[in-house]
Specification:
Chain A: InterPro entries: 3-oxoacid_CoA-transf_B (IPR012791), CoA_trans_fam_I (IPR004165), CoA_transf_AS (IPR004164), NagB/RpiA_transferase-like (IPR037171). The structure holds two protein chains of two kinds. By secondary structure, chain A is an alpha/beta fold. Chain A has a single domain (about 5-210), classed as Glutaconate Coenzyme A-transferase (3-Layer(aba) Sandwich), CATH 3.40.1080.10. Chain A is built from five helices and 13 strands. The longest helix of chain A is centred in the first third of the chain and has 9 residues, at about 5-15. Chain B is globular. The chains are: A alpha/beta, B alpha/beta. The interface between A and B is large, with 53 and 56 residues.
Chain lengths: ~220, ~230
């Protein structure tokens, strides 16, 4: 079975380490915040200028001056800091954020990512995505492995306009967890009940399959 | 007006001198921390052919979105647009020129503009459509593109508190692009919720020192919420 969105978020959350500063993109990455493992503390960065994003406010706490990068009303956790957009992107571009999690339309075997623009469709903009992929050393992309029509999104070369060049080294799809190294995807784990053959069939880019590919496990939490 | 007193008496006076064809830098992220009354004054004046530099372009009927109603904006530099139907329509009809700019690059363009740095290199956008036609140089093994700074004829800024001398503090995440915009306007106008006497603000807590600010005005604000999310 392909992973659910929640399972994808849970799998990404296992990559969090105690003391990490983390930027989570919109969509599945946002869900990662719900699965931070017990006993570790991470600080969420929101690129509109908040380090230490907390939960949504109660009705009493609701404040129009307190939002996240998705423009949702939020709170600041104890120990948070608030600053300007230039300061926020200095953190991002300067490589100070420990982990960035974001979505993508396509990834290729050279680590290129396309995530912001589909020619012919309405283009709303890249927001902070180009800064995030260019600035972070440690990025996990979350995406579906193939389109609804079965076309692979893990490619030899991205067809869509890029968000960043050569900057992605880890991908979690609904079928597999992969690393990208030396011009190839390396299959590290597969979703429960998903065969290596299915992953091979749905990966258009160069794929290295080790002798043993462990299955992900999810214990009900 | 005497000495360092930057107060003006009306919104009309606050935007005195704005003309059609000018470049206006605006603070704000989404609808958070936007200079809503200064935008309304630009609408009232009816100046057009404006180039606007702002992370977003408001929504239908609020924020910079109201300047679309009478087609006052000719060109916009922004990182994310299209939250409003009118904007989409004008973009698809080529009635407005949109220069999509990565968010960090946009902030840095304003920061550099205000700091007298004419251009800077960044890895952001290299190898993407944003980098096309731009000068490329390699630093420490990374390809970077040259991005030019931005200066505005006017900067319109929303602060929380200011003193009469134009020292400004922002509130929570309503800070966002406001401090950068404030530095990069030939004329910088700041509207705030409260104006206090010099000495009442702690000097080390000032976000925007008064040297950047030409005019300040106290206003009242709707502060519309774009996405109301609450914890049950």
């Amino acid at each position: 079975m392909a992973l659910t969105r929640e399972q994808m978020a849970r799998r990404v959350a296992r990559e969090l380490e105690d003391g990490f500063y983390v930027n989570l993109g919109i969509g599945i990455p946002t869900l990662v915040a719900n699965y931070i493992p017990d006993g570790i503390d991470v600080m969420l960065q929101s690129e509109n200028g908040l380090l230490g994003m907390g939960r949504y406010p109660t009705d009493d706490e609701l404040d129009p001056d307190m939002i996240n990068a998705g423009k949702e009303t939020v709170t600041a956790r104890p120990g948070a800091a608030i600053f300007s957009s230039a300061e926020s992107f200095a953190m991002i571009r300067g490589g100070h954020v420990d982990l960035t999690v974001l979505g993508a339309f396509e990834i290729d075997q050279e680590g290129n990512i396309a995530s912001w623009m589909i020619p012919g469709k309405l283009i709303k903009g890249m927001g902070g995505a180009m800064d995030l992929v260019a600035g972070a050393e440690n990025i996990i992309c979350t995406m579906t492995h193939a389109s609804k029509h079965g076309e692979s999104k893990l490619l030899e070369k991205c067809a869509l306009p890029l968000t960043g060049a050569g900057c992605i080294n880890r991908v979690l799809t609904d079928l597999a967890y992969l690393e990208i190294k030396d011009g190839a995807f390396i299959l590290k784990e597969r979703a429960p009940g998903v065969s290596v053959e299915e992953i091979v069939e749905k990966t258009a880019g160069k794929l290295i399959v080790p002798d043993h590919v462990p299955e992900m496990t999810f214990v009900d939490e | 007006m005497a000495g360092f007193d930057k107060r003006v008496a009306s919104y009309q006076e606050a935007m005195e001198g704005i003309e059609s064809g000018m470049t206006v830098l605006a603070g704000g992220f989404g609808l958070c921390g936007i200079p809503e009354n200064l935008i309304a004054e630009i609408k009232r004046r009816g100046v057009d052919n404006l180039t606007v530099v702002s992370n977003n372009c408001g929504v239908d009927g609020f924020g910079l979105g109201i300047l679309l109603e009478d087609r006052q904006i000719r060109k916009i530099l922004a990182s994310y647009v299209g939250e409003n139907a009118l904007f989409e329509r004008q973009m698809l009809n080529d009635e407005i020129e949109v220069v999509l700019t990565p968010q960090g690059t946009l902030a840095e363009k304003m920061r550099a503009g205000g700091a007298g740095i004419p251009a800077f290199y960044t890895a952001t956008g290299y190898g993407t459509p944003i980098g096309e036609g731009k000068e490329v140089r390699e630093f420490n093994g990374r390809h970077c593109i040259l991005e030019e700074a931005i200066i505005g004829d006017f900067a319109i800024v929303k602060g929380w508190k200011a003193d009469r001398y134009g020292n400004v503090m922002y509130r929570h995440t309503a800070q966002n692009f406001n401090p950068m915009a404030a530095t990069a306007g030939k004329i910088t106008v700041v509207e705030v919720e409260e104006i206090v006497e010099p000495g009442e603000l702690e000097p080390s807590q000032i976000h925007t020192p008064g040297i950047y600010v030409d005019r300040i005005i106290q206003g009242t604000f709707e502060k519309r919420i774009e996405k109301r999310t609450v914890h049950s």
